[in-house]
Amino acid sequence: MSEEDRIKERVEKTMRLMETEERLKADPWFFTRLQARISARNAELLSPVRQGGRWRPVVLAALAGVNITIAALWTFGNAETRHKETAMAYLARDYGLTGEAGDWLYNTIGE
Questions:
Q1: DSSP per residue, 3-17
Q2: Residue 65: what pLDDT?
Q3: CB atoms closer than 10 angstroms to residue 89
Q4: Is the pTM value of this prediction over 0.85?
């Protein structure tokens, strides 16, 4: 028996099996159950707890860092302003400048 005859015999045998076997009936609710399972999985993945859970500590740390930075700049910025005002007052006293309306130093300190 040649290889070609064996192949033909196997094909015929397979065809006879396909004709005699019952076809599998599809479950009418399979698609509905599949959709429900996919929807449940999507709802679980997109839940609010899971959605912001990983980023919440990062955002809190960033806000705390910004808050501390602004507080430090505000504190040291005011200290520099106070030092400038003190230096201007010493200059005005040393040079005998008065705080009259036309005085440039008075207008600078007054602002």
A1: HHHHHHHHHHHHHHH
A2: 94
A3: 13
A4: no
